[in-house]
Amino acid sequence: MRITCPHCGRPAKVRTSRAMSPITREAYVQCENIDCCHVFRVFVSAIATIVPSIRPNPAVYLRPSARRAANAEGQGELPFEPGGGTGSQLLA
Ligand SMILES: [Zn+2]
């Protein structure tokens, strides 16, 4: 994951981090621009599931990603009107 300094926009490097919870880490980040040298904290959190875990932690619940849910609904839609004449053409 690339982190950029909020002041100068240059790359910044994670120096250390610690777990705040099973889904959130706090990291201390230092800007690599020697003309800036900003040091700041960030939080990195899991916010949604895209592909469910094969070995889920029962203490963790992440809602399904809204984007993936929308895509899954879209895949189930038929490209033509149900009951219309085009369906038989696709099956033929
Ligand atoms: Zn900076």
Would you mind describing this structure in some detail?
There is one protein chain. This protein has about 90 residues and is an alpha+beta fold. It folds into 2 domains: about 1-45, N-terminal domain of TfIIb (Single Sheet); about 50-75, no CATH class. About 20% of the residues lie in helices and about 30% in strands. A 4-stranded antiparallel beta sheet has the order 1-2-3-4, with no helix packed on it. It starts with a strand and ends with a helix. The model is unreliable at about 75-90 (pLDDT under 50). The structure holds zinc ion.
Low-confidence stretches: 76-92
What is the β-strand count? 4
User: What is the N-to-C succession of helices and strands?
Assistant: EEEEHH
With helices defined by DSSP (H or I, 4 residues minimum), what is the helix count?
Answer: 2
Strand order of the largest sheet: 1-2-3-4
Radius of gyration: 23 Å
Tell me the CATH architecture of the largest domain.
Single Sheet
Quaternary assembly: single chain
Morphology call: elongated
What is the typical, i.e. mean, pLDDT? 83
Q: What percent strand?
A: 25-35%
